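Wait, can you check?
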Amino acid sequence: MAKNKFHDGPGPSQRQLRVGELIRRTLADVLNQGDVHDPELNAMSITVGEVRASPDLKIATVYVMPLGGGQREEAIEALKRNRSELRRAISREMSLKYTPDLRFVIDETFDRMDESRRLFAQEKVRRDLERDPE
């Protein structure tokens, strides 16, 4: 039986996960070391939380968050401006047939965690959680 070139399972393949993690590490190192020729981007402290690679590995969605959560739009714009330089850095570190196109988005994970903590701190929710299940 021929294998479908697009992953049709419930989640990403092992290869997608591995490539995403390698890209995440590479980008985090490049941004931490200030290896980009853009002083505005080098002045920002940006956390690379996750990278999700498409099934064909041609697109990598990079989830980022500036330190402290401020300057979100400025960080995304600076990363987009330096996309080609960041792709070259990935290309030097990894041996892929194609270096994925990078798409930068804000990582909302921390915002969702804060909202969950706020909900769990509410009296009504705590009372429901502490109630005996019987």
User: Anything to note?
Assistant: The first helix runs from residue 14 to 33. The beta strands are 46-53, 59-66, 101-106. The chain has one domain: 14-107.
